[in-house]
UniProtKB/TrEMBL annotation:
UniProt keyword terms in alphabetical order: ATP-binding, DNA replication, Hydrolase, Nucleotide-binding, Nucleus
Protein family: Belongs to the activator 1 small subunits family.
Record's protein name: Replication factor C subunit 3
GO molecular function: ATP binding; ATP hydrolysis activity; DNA binding; DNA clamp loader activity
Length: 342
């Protein structure tokens, strides 16, 4: 990392600053207070209501990555417990612990030690992150642990896929869905980081960044940091280069060929472009997704195409052949075009 923009400092503070410099921005800019959070105010206010009435249930947060699930519960906990935060909150990651027995032991020793409770909070909080990584059996054991300590502990269970959580746990929690962030929400937080880090980014670069992040704030910050490290001037091309994502112009050419050219011509054009630019079909598909929004298509064609894109994406992710999937996708586009002319 460069060190420009740093003034003179004592050894101690420059060492601290260097430490800060090494931090991933997702950590450096993790929201500390509820005010730092740019989204899901409805969820925080609902939970605040529970707390005010002294009726906090167990919580289940679910939704795609980078939408603030972990940040939200930690910011809430900081507000509830203040100086008692450390004694009152246990953060566990279900995916990197050595099994439910370790989790159970940690929970047990945490739950059974008395802490100086905050004035309003007569309970401790256990945050169990990435709970969908737990096996069914481990979840069964967790469910009994939850029951056992319900008197003085509240759980906040966090996962990406709510369907991977067993019904017995789901039914004991109040569920909150975290949707992807709106572009303007991502932008407002991004702007804060851009200013703090003195990033030299063009409006086009920022737009590309917003598009690529698709409501995932972690992704937005990671890409921004990588671009900032790679170049002094971040424009649209720099963003696409840095992520290895195809440039929208290339995707436009692909889509145009798919829709207008005869099957074999389109197939060959796309394969040539894929080879020349080193674009994987999966990345091409996510690019097509982004473009579809700005293309005029009747609803039935759009829905048909979206379904097929999702199918193709799924088959690619489970090891489907690119050639076969491209053929299938091309067929789907042709049908979508026919549907729109019918
Ligand atoms: N709502 C938000 N407001 C501000 N920053 C956010 C928000 N959501 C995510 N972030 C940023 O993205 C990073 C990842 O957020 P995190 O809470 O860990 O997401 P999740 O747990 O949903 O995967 C955080 O460090 C923070 O910098
Ligand atoms: Mg998280």
């Amino acid at each position: 990392m460069d060190s420009k923009g740093k003034g003179k400092a004592t050894d101690a503070t420059s060492a601290a600053a260097a430490d800060q410099d090494l931090l991933p921005w997702v950590e450096k800019y993790r929201p500390v207070t509820l005010d730092d959070l740019v989204s899901h105010k409805d969820i925080t206010s609902t939970i605040q209501n529970f707390i005010d009435k002294n009726r906090l249930p167990h919580l289940l947060f679910y939704g795609p990555p980078g939408t603030g699930k972990t940040s939200t519960i930690l910011a809430m906990a900081r507000k509830i417990y203040g100086a008692q935060f450390r004694n009152s909150v246990l953060e566990l990651n279900a995916s990197d612990e050595r099994g439910i027995d370790v989790v159970r032991e940690q929970i047990k020793s945490f739950a059974s030690t008395k802490s100086v409770f905050g004035a309003k909070a007569g309970f401790k909080l256990i945050v169990l992150d990435e709970a969908d990584a737990m096996t069914q059996a481990a979840q069964g054991a967790l469910r009994r642990v939850i029951e056992q300590y319900t008197k003085n502990v509240r759980f906040c269970i966090i996962c990406n896929y709510v369907n991977k959580i067993i019904p017995a746990i789901q039914s004991r929690c109040t569920r909150f869905r975290f949707n992807p962030l709106e572009p303007d929400q991502v932008e407002s937080r991004l702007q804060h980081v851009i200013e703090s880090e003195h990033c030299n980014i063009t409006p086009g670069g920022k737009e590309a960044l917003l598009k690529l992040s698709r409501g995932d704030m972690r992704r937005a910050l990671n890409v921004l940091q990588a671009c900032h490290a790679a170049s002094d001037h971040i424009d649209e091309t720099a963003v696409y280069n840095c992520t290895g994502n195809p440039h929208p112009e290339d995707i436009e050419a692909v889509l145009k060929s798919m829709m207008q050219d005869e099957f074999t011509t389109a197939f060959n054009t796309i394969v040539a472009l894929k080879t020349a630019k080193g674009i994987a079909l999966a990345d091409m598909i996510s690019g097509v997704y982004d473009l579809l929004a700005s293309i005029k298509l009747p609803p039935k064609s759009r829905i048909y195409l979206l379904d097929h894109l999702a199918d193709t994406e799924h088959r690619l992710s489970t090891g489907g052949s690119e050639k076969l999937q491209l053929t299938a996708l091309l067929g789907a586009v042709k049908i979508a075009v026919e549907l729109s002319q019918a």
